Amino acid sequence: MAKGLDVGTMNIISGKQDAEETVFVQQRNSFVEIEYSDMAEQMLSRSDVLHIRKDDAVYVVGDDALSFANIFKQETRRPMRRGILSSDEKSAIPMMKLIIEQVAGEPTRPGERIHYSVPADPIDSDVSVLYHQKTLESFLGDAGYDPEPINEGMAVIYSELADNNFTGLGISFGAGMTNVCLAYYAVPVMTFSIARGGDWIDEQAARATGKPIDKVTSIKEDDFELDFRTDVGGVEGALAIYYENLLDYVIENITREVDEEDIEEGLDVPVVVTGGTSSPRGFEALFADHLEDANIPFSISDVRSAREPLYSVARGALVAARSEEAEEGSGSPNRSEAVERSVSDGESEGDADAEEEAASAEN
Ligand SMILES: Nc1ncnc2c1ncn2[C@@H]1O[C@H](COP(=O)(O)OP(=O)(O)OP(=O)(O)O)[C@@H](O)[C@H]1O
Ligand SMILES: [Mg+2]
Description:
Blueprint: E1 2-7, E2 11-18, E3 21-28, E4 31-35, H1 38-45, E5 51-54, E6 57-61, H2 65-71, E7 80-81, E8 84-85, H3 92-104, E9 112-118, H4 130-142, E10 145-151, H5 152-160, E11 168-173, E12 178-184, E13 187-194, H6 198-209, H7 213-223, H8 234-257, E14 268-274, H9 283-292, E15 299-305, H10 312-330, H11 335-343, H12 347-362
Parallel strand pairs: 1-9, 9-10, 11-14, 14-15
Antiparallel strand pairs: 1-2, 2-3, 4-6, 5-6, 7-8, 11-12, 12-13
InterPro entries: ATPase_NBD, Volactin
Organism: Halomarina halobia
Region (Disordered): 321-363
């Protein structure tokens, strides 16, 4: 068995294969601090709310943080900002550790493989992802896993472009970041991130309209559509303006980052857009429209969107973990063959089960 883990600024999601099905476990990457009281402690310990106590405070972590924040009139806090561990949040590390342990669960055997997503270094900010990556590695190692980082954009290629020989441009529009990867037969030829995503859209639209950020986020997530009409005024109008601005910024950076020497002549590839920020209706068409005017040094056959945008990265990390496991098992040097085998579920699952049984029989 192997697992995939998407560690995002807003959502932490694990994926594992259960017979024919991929099973996901998800938590919001946020928490709220409430004052300790006997009543709070009793209430929490009788529930399955994820929480920890520290001195005079209780921290409610994950999906339940928002409802506790409303009841106790507190703000939720977030351990990550712009794609990596937040340096402004002193409680980031214990909160992330707790969420990751809950989402990943116990390893099914000691040293179970887990591929966890890590963004590429952002090109528009001077932060490095190394500290973030190493911290996650240590959480997962302590939990008994054999952790391996996978680039977030590459995970999109694994989950969404299996039918195109893992060749194309994958873009994950998240909360804190946008991650881009161009791959050719499962080999990344360009990966980068930009430190803007859904949070940036919300902050800008809130600032422009004078509305609280939370209000803007819920309008955006509820029924907002990108329909090529920018109604001036109102939150929706501001959201549309910043959505378009983000798309243009991403396209401009793709054009700048592509190294023409790495591009085969006549390259014609699909683009897949995914991530929570790609959810509004019209997003894919708007992106295709803006791409048409761009000066990208390869041609684009079509723009697709993922069927389940929130799960693409966890699914891709799982594909990578299973393929590596299959490769170790068979000694096959051909990575894309191994990936295909693990994508076409079923048989490799049987192999994994047999391996697992063998492993537990040894103990
Ligand atoms: N239906 C929706 N419409 C618009 N935006 C949405 C919708 N659902 C979620 N989002 C936005 O998607 C973002 C979260 O997406 P996702 O889970 O892909 O990000 P993440 O992986 O946690 O972040 P990152 O990869 O940047 O670290 C948030 O900005 C959220 O507001
Ligand atoms: Mg993400």
